[in-house]
Automatic annotation (TrEMBL):
The keyword Transferase applies. GO terms for cellular component: cytoplasm. One of its GO terms (molecular function) is protein-N-terminal-alanine acetyltransferase activity. PROSITE patterns: GNAT (PS51186). Belongs to the acetyltransferase family. RimJ subfamily. The keyword Acyltransferase applies. Residues 1-108 form the N-acetyltransferase domain. This is N-acetyltransferase domain-containing protein.
Amino acid sequence: MRYFLFDERFPQDIIGSVSFFNIRRGDFEQCCIGYKIDEEYRHMGYGRRMLELALKIITVDYGIHRVEAYILPANTPSVRLAGQCGFEPEGIAKGYVRMHGEWTDHVRYVYISRYQ
């Protein structure tokens, strides 16, 4: 499931997106999240607003209880954004994904729904 963010002044231009994947229902009610904002729109509040709205949709409208974000430790802006939106670090996912031909570790951040 993917949502797109548009610039109000130029509604034809996508400036960011957030996606939910690996959605597990039943006793789990959890998923993973990925997000990105175009570089020229960073540090302007768009990412936080987008992430907060997306988290509310996935938890309230879809009943998801737990959302996981896997973030490279060096991705300071993403780490900061996740923290501002209520994510907490839970541990290291060793060799989580191959990037540029090498397996990389990511920190797993978790958001637990405050709406349930």
